[in-house]
Amino acid sequence: VDHLVTATNPDIVNRQKLYIRCLEDSGVKVELGRFKRKYIKCPVCGAVNQHHEEKETDVAIGARLLELFINNKCDSVVIITGDTDIAAAVKIAKNIYPTKHVLFAFPYARKNSELAKLAPSFTITDQAYIKHQFANPITLKNGKKINKPAKW
Predict the structure, then answer these.
(1) CB 22 within 8 A of CB 35
(2) How many C-beta neighbours within 10 Å does residue 43 have?
(3) What pTM value is reported for the model?
(4) How far apart, in whole angstroms, are the C-alpha atoms of residue 128 and residue 132?
(5) What are the tens digits of pLDDT across the range 93-141?
(6) DSSP string of 78-143?
(7) Distance, CA of 76 to CA of 68 (rounded, Å)
(8) Which end of the chain is more exposed for a tag (fewer CB within 10 A), N or C?
(9) In this structure, are residues 55 and 37 in contact, taking their beta carbons and an 8 Å threshold?
(10) How far is CA 80 from the centre of its chain?
């Protein structure tokens, strides 16, 4: 986690760390992405503000998709995205492995018609998000109870 993000908004970082801990405790293998620090100058006032840009996530997902198929680790993959940057990797995977299946799960309000043409898809409803949240409090395997924050 970038120390400058922590310094400017530690609550967001702490909530994310807590969420990742709960995911890992539930058996989810979490792979963190990479963010690049970027400075953007305001064209109106000239102030320079720091932002963070996600880097290489789609490439990593595409590479993992091919790795899974090459090593015959699965026959079907569900990719949760609405971003077309993954399209090239999916096309290649489907071409090389025509008997394997790729499906898209579109996050709520993020349906993408280009991806929907490429592979079967469904949209995660707002009700599904509500139904599948962690309990409050969350009890970890070690017995520790964690109160769910208001925002995750």
Answers:
(1) no
(2) 6
(3) 0.75
(4) 6
(5) 999 999 999 999 999 988 999 999 999 999 999 999 999 999 999 999 9
(6) EEE---GGGHHHHHHHHHH-TTSEEEEEEPTT---HHHHHHS-EEE--HHHHHHTSPPSSEE-TTS
(7) 9
(8) C
(9) no
(10) 7
Q: What is the pLDDT averaged over residues 131-152? A: 91
Instruction: Say what the pLDDT of residue 152 is.
Output: 75
Token code pair at residue 68:
């899974």
Which backbone phi and psi does 20 adopt, to 5 degrees?
-65, -40
At 107, phi and psi to the nearest 5? -60, 155
Please report where in the chains the tokens 């990797």 appear, as a residue: 89
Q: What is the DSSP letter of 148?
A: P
Structure tokens at 76: 């079907």
Token reading at 144: 């520790």
HEC assignment per residue over 65-95: HHHHHHCCCCCEEEEECCCHHHHHHHHHHHH
